[in-house]
Design a protein that fits this description.
By secondary structure, the chain is α/β, with parallel strands linked by helices. Helices cover 38% and strands 20% of the residues. The protein binds 1,4-dihydronicotinamide adenine dinucleotide and magnesium ion.
Amino acid sequence: MSSTDHPFLSAPTKQLLIDGQWVNALSGATFDSRNPATGEPLGHLAQGDAADIDRAVVAARRAFEDGPWPRFTPAERQKVILRLADLLENRTEDFARLDTLDMGGPIRRTRGAIGLLTGVLRYFAGQALAIHGATPQPSIPDMFVATVKEPVGVCGAIIPWNGPLWASVLKVGPVLATGCTLVLKPAEDASLTPLMFGQLCLEAGVPPGVINVVTGFGETAGAALAAHLDVDKLSFTGSDVTGRRIVAASAGNLKRLSLELGGKSPHIIFADADLAVAAPAAAVAVFGNSGQVCSAGTRLFVERSIAEEFTDAVAKVAAQMRIGNGMDETIDLGPLVSQRQLTRVTGYLDSARAEGAAFACGGERLTGAGWDTGFFVPPTVLTNVQDGMTVAREEIFGPVLSVLPFDSEEEVTKRANATPFGLGAGLWTRDIGRAHRLGKALRAGSVWVNCYNTLDPAVPSGGYKASGYGREYGPNHLEEHLQVKSLWIATS
Ligand code: NAI
Ligand code: MG
C-alpha cells in the first residue's frame, strides 16, 4: 500500500455535497489536490463556483424551512450530534491520515486533534438542550414579555487549510445544536476531510440539505458565498486581507459575520519564570504545525538578563525537532501546505535577512533528495530583530520566531500591544501580581499564563482588534447562531 492510499480517495473525482447528493460542479470543472510532503496528486476535486454555491444555498434554505430539520426537537438534535461524535471517534485514523495527506501536518497532531474535536461535538450536543430565553418584567402594566432564542437561519462558512477537519467541526457543531443549516466552503489546498466529514453528517442522520459542502476557489465560490443575499450569517477563518473582502461582500444583505483572522501574538518570558518548562513551550507555541496556527506565539519577548541563555535554549529545542513527511509517526514538523505558502514564508526569511536580522537556527528551505518535491522549512529563530521590521509585524504562518529582548514590565506591555492584531498572548512568570496585571493589560482574546495555546470546548476563543470579531467554543459560539425575539403579549 502506498502512503497515499486512502479509502476516501478511491473515486477519481471528489464531488460537491449538495442536498444530500454527490454532484459535479455545474460547469464540469475540476482542480487538483496534492500531497505537500511529496508533490504527488491525491485526486481531483469538483470546482464549484457561484452557480453551485447558489444551488447549495437553495438546498440549505429549503432544509431550514421545510424539511424534517425544523421539526427536530433539541433532544433529537442532540442525539444526532452525539452519533456524529461517536462516528468521528471510530474513524479517527481515517480522518487523521486524510488531513495529513492533504495538508501535511504530523499524523500525531492530526490524530491528537480529534480527541478535542469529539469533545467539541459532545459539548455542542449538551448545548442543544441549554437554549433558552428570559422573561423580563416591563414597567408597562398588563403586559407579559418573553425573549425567545431562534436559529439565525442559513449559515455560510469559509475555512482555511491549516486545520481543515478542525475548522469543519467548529462550523458544523453550533449549526446543528441551534437548528441552523450550512454551506461550507473548504480551502482549495485542503478540502478532503471537510468532504468526508460532510458524508459523516449524513451517516449520523443529519437530514439532506442541512450540511452542504462546496469545494472551489476563494475568488469564485468563496466570494459568491460571502455575497449571497439569502445567507443569514457567515463565519470566516483565514487572513485579515480576505476578512476585509468578506466584510465588504457581506454588505448586500448585511448578513451577520463572525471573523477569526489570525495574529502576531506576543509570548513574554520574565526572568523569574520556570525557564526549563518555558523554553520548550515557547518553541512549540510557534513551530507547532510548522507555524501554520492562527494564535502562534511569533513575537518572543524575553527579559534582557536571560535573553541570550533563553534564546539558546529555544534554538536547541528547535534544532532537535524532527522534520519530514507527516505520515511518519516520529516527526514533529511536516511541510508547509503549498508552493504558494513556501514562497510566502521564504520571502519573509529574505526580508529578515535584508532588514538585518541574525539567524540562531534555520533560515533556508530544505533542499536535496527527498526535500525538493515537498515544501519544507526548518524551525527558524531570528535575533537582532527590531519591532518595526516586517517579520515582527506581519503574520508569516511559517516556522519563524522573532526574539525581542525587553527591560521592564511596563515597556513590554506597550510593545506587546503595539500590533493591529489581538488573538492570543502568553506570559511566563512566578509573580502572581504580575500575572494578574498583564492578564488584564494584554489586549487579546486569550491570555495564557505559564501555558500557551490551550483550548477547551467550554472556553471562548476569538480576537480583539483586527484579529476579528465573534467567539468560537463555549456558550458565546452558540449565541452567534441565535436570534433574540421579544414576544409582547398584552394581557388585558
Ligand atoms: P485566505 O484567507 O485567502 O484563505 C482562507 C479561505 O478564504 C479559503 O477557503 C479561501 O478559498 C477563501 N477565500 C480567499 N479569497 C476569498 C474571497 N475573496 N472571498 C471569499 N473567500 C475567499 O488565506 P490564504 O491565501 O490561504 O493564506 C495566506 C495567508 O493568510 C497565510 O500566509 C496566513 O498568514 C493567513 N492565514 C491565516 C489563517 C488563520 O487561521 N489565521 C488561516 C489561513 C491563512
Ligand atoms: Mg492538499
